[in-house]
Design brief:
heterodimer, A: mainly alpha, 9 helices, 87% helix, globular, B: alpha/beta, six-stranded mixed sheet, four-stranded antiparallel sheet, 10 helices, 10 strands, 39% helix
C-alpha cells in the first residue's frame, strides 16, 4: 500500500466528520441573520412613528435617491426599451402582426424591465452607497457617537433611508416605464417596418391599469429591500477599509439576490390577485 | 458618582476586563492608564452603555446602566459626554450641527438664536473661531476635529466627560493644546473627567488621580503623587520604564 492510499481513508473520514460542523455553522449563521433582520425590521417599524426626529434626514435621502438617480435610470431604461423593441422586431417580423411589438415593449417594460432594471441599477447606486456609508460610520465610531449622545441609530440612519427608498422607487419606475416605452417606440420607428399608429395600437391593446400597479407595488418592495439590506449589512460592518469593502460587496450580492427572489415571489402573488 | 461594580468582559477567549471595581467621585480628573490593548476603551464604553458587560454593573448617579430602560439610559447619556479616539464627527453634518447633536436628545430645543449662541460659546471654549461652525469635519485638521468632538461632548452641560485617548494621532504641538484644553475645561466647567490614555506624561499633566488597568484588573487607584511613589513593581515599571528595563536585563 502506498503512502497516498494509506492517507486517503483518514482524509475521507476527516472530511465527513467536518460536514455536521459545517452544516451546523451554516444553520447558526442563517438563524443569526434571520433574528437580526427581524429585530431590525421591528425597530424600524417602531421608529417610523416618530417622524419629527428623522424628517430632515428623510428629505435629504429622498432627494439623493430620487433626483440623484434620474440620469442613470433614464439611460438604462432607454437602452432596455430600445433593445426590447429591436429584439422583438427581429423575432416577430414576418411571423405575427407588426403591432405586437408595441404590446411586447409595453408588457416587458411595465411589468418587468421598468421595476427590475431600475432596482438592479439602484442596488449598485443606492444599496452599495448605504452599505459603505453606514459601514464607515460603524468602523469610525460615528454610530457609537450617535448612541452616546442619546440618539437611536435606527431612527436616525435606517428609517430615513428605508422610507426614502420605498417612497422614491415607484416614481423612478414610472419615469423608467415612460422612457423605456418611448425609447422602444423610437427605436422601432427608426429600424423596423412599423408606424407610430401600429406601435401605439400595440401598446394600447396590452395596457391595463393593473400592469402599472403591478410595477409600482414591485418598485416599493424593491426600494424597501435595497435600502434595508444596505442598512442591515452596513451596520454589521467590522474592521477597517477592508471590512467596508466586504460590506459593499455583500450589499450588492445579497441585494441582487433579494430583488430576484422578490421578483419571482411577487410575480406569483400579484398575478393571483390580478 | 460613577461606580464600576465587578465588571467582566470577554471577546471570545480573550478576557479583557476581569472583575473590575472602582468608583469615581464628582470633581477632578481621573486618568485611566494602562498599556495598549488592556481594555481601557472597553471599560469607558461600558459607562455609557455602548458595550454590555458579561458580569457586573455600572451605576451612574444611582442609575444602573445594565438594567436601565431606553429613557433612563438616554438621561444618563445626556449627563455624560464622550470624546471618541478618532473624534467620530458626523461627516454629513457641519461642525455647528455636530455640536448641536450634543445639546439634547431631541435636537436643539432652544430658539435658533440661543442655539447658535451656545455653539459659538462651545467653539470659543475649545479655542476655535465661530466661523468654523459652518465648515464640515473633512475641512478641519485632526487637532481641530478633536476640539470639535470635545465641544460636542460638553455642549449639553454634561456633568461627566469621558476622553478616549484624546491625544492619540496628534503631533506634539496639537497634543499639548488638547491636554491643556482638557485641564482648562475641567477647571472652567467643573465637570468630572475620566481620560483614557497610555501616555503617562499626559496623565501626569492633566489628572489628579490615576487608575492603572493591568491585565484586566485595576492594579492601582489613587492620587498622582501616590502613583509616582508607589513601590508596586508593576507601577514602577510604568513610572520609570527605562530603569526597570535595564534592571530586568
Amino acid at each position: 500500500m502506498t503512502e497516498n492510499e494509506r492517507q486517503r481513508p483518514a482524509e475521507t473520514s476527516s472530511f465527513i466528520a467536518r460536514i455536521p460542523a459545517a452544516v451546523g455553522g451554516s444553520v447558526i449563521t442563517v438563524l443569526r441573520h434571520s433574528a437580526g433582520l427581524t429585530l431590525l425590521t421591528f425597530r424600524t417599524v417602531v421608529a417610523i412613528a416618530r417622524p419629527r426626529r428623522y424628517y430632515r434626514a428623510l428629505m435629504t435621502q429622498m432627494y439623493d435617491m430620487g433626483i440623484g438617480s434620474i440620469p442613470v435610470v433614464v439611460l438604462v431604461a432607454a437602452l432596455a426599451g430600445a433593445v426590447t423593441s429591436q429584439q422583438s422586431g427581429y423575432q416577430f417580423t414576418g411571423t405575427v402582426p407588426i403591432w405586437v411589438i408595441g404590446s411586447v415593449v409595453a408588457a416587458s417594460v411595465l411589468t418587468e424591465l421598468g421595476p427590475l432594471v431600475t432596482a438592479l441599477v439602484l442596488v449598485g447606486r443606492i444599496g452599495a452607497r448605504i452599505g459603505a456609508e453606514l459601514g464607515t460610520m460603524v468602523v469610525t465610531e460615528q454610530v457609537d457617537a450617535l448612541r452616546a449622545v442619546g440618539r437611536d441609530p435606527v431612527e436616525q440612519l435606517v428609517v430615513p433611508r428605508v422610507l426614502a427608498g420605498t417612497l422614491m422607487l415607484p416614481p423612478l419606475v414610472v419615469l423608467a416605464d415612460f422612457v423605456g416605452i418611448a425609447a422602444g417606440w423610437f427605436g422601432a420607428l427608426l429600424t423596423l417596418p412599423i408606424t407610430s399608429a401600429e406601435f401605439i395600437y400595440g401598446v394600447r391593446t396590452y395596457f391595463h391599469d393593473f400592469a402599472l400597479w403591478f410595477g409600482l407595488i414591485k418598485a416599493a418592495v424593491f426600494g424597501a429591500t435595497i435600502t434595508f439590506i444596505g442598512c442591515y449589512v452596513g451596520l454589521r460592518a467590522t474592521g477597517g477599509a477592508e471590512g467596508v469593502g466586504r460590506t459593499t460587496t455583500s450589499v450588492v450580492v445579497s441585494g441582487t439576490v433579494a430583488i430576484m427572489f422578490w421578483d419571482a415571489v411577487l410575480a406569483r402573488l400579484l398575478k393571483a390577485f390580478g | 458618582m460613577i461606580e464600576i461594580k465587578g465588571l467582566s468582559k470577554s471577546f471570545g477567549d480573550n478576557v479583557v476586563l476581569d472583575d473590575v471595581s472602582f468608583s469615581v467621585k464628582e470633581g477632578g480628573t481621573l486618568a485611566l492608564f494602562g498599556p495598549s490593548g488592556t481594555g481601557k476603551s472597553v471599560l469607558l464604553k461600558h459607562i455609557v452603555g455602548l458595550i454590555e458587560p458579561d458580569v457586573g454593573d455600572v451605576v451612574v448617579d444611582g442609575v444602573s446602566i445594565t438594567t436601565a430602560n431606553r429613557r433612563q439610559l438616554n438621561q444618563v447619556r445626556q449627563r455624560v459626554g464622550y470624546v471618541f479616539q478618532g473624534a467620530a464627527l458626523f461627516d454629513s453634518l457641519s461642525v455647528g450641527e455636530n455640536i448641536q447633536l450634543g445639546m439634547d436628545v431631541d435636537g436643539c430645543r432652544l430658539k435658533k438664536q440661543e442655539c447658535e449662541e451656545r455653539i459659538t460659546e462651545c467653539l470659543n471654549l475649545v479655542n476655535l473661531h465661530p466661523s468654523v461652525a459652518d465648515l464640515y469635519p473633512i475641512e478641519l485638521s485632526g487637532g481641530m476635529q478633536k476640539r470639535v468632538a470635545i465641544a460636542r461632548a460638553f455642549a449639553g452641560h454634561q456633568n461627566y466627560l469621558l476622553y478616549d485617548e484624546p491625544t492619540t494621532g496628534l503631533d506634539p504641538e496639537n497634543a499639548f493644546i488638547i491636554t491643556n484644553l482638557i485641564e482648562h475645561l475641567s477647571e472652567e466647567l467643573g465637570v468630572t473627567s475620566i481620560m483614557v490614555t497610555h501616555d503617562l506624561d499626559n496623565a501626569f499633566l492633566v489628572a489628579d488621580r490615576i487608575a492603572l488597568l493591568y491585565e484586566g484588573k485595576i492594579r492601582f487607584k489613587g492620587p498622582v503623587d501616590d502613583f509616582r511613589e508607589s513601590e508596586d513593581p508593576i507601577v514602577r515599571r510604568f513610572v520609570s520604564p527605562s530603569v526597570e528595563t535595564i534592571n530586568a536585563a
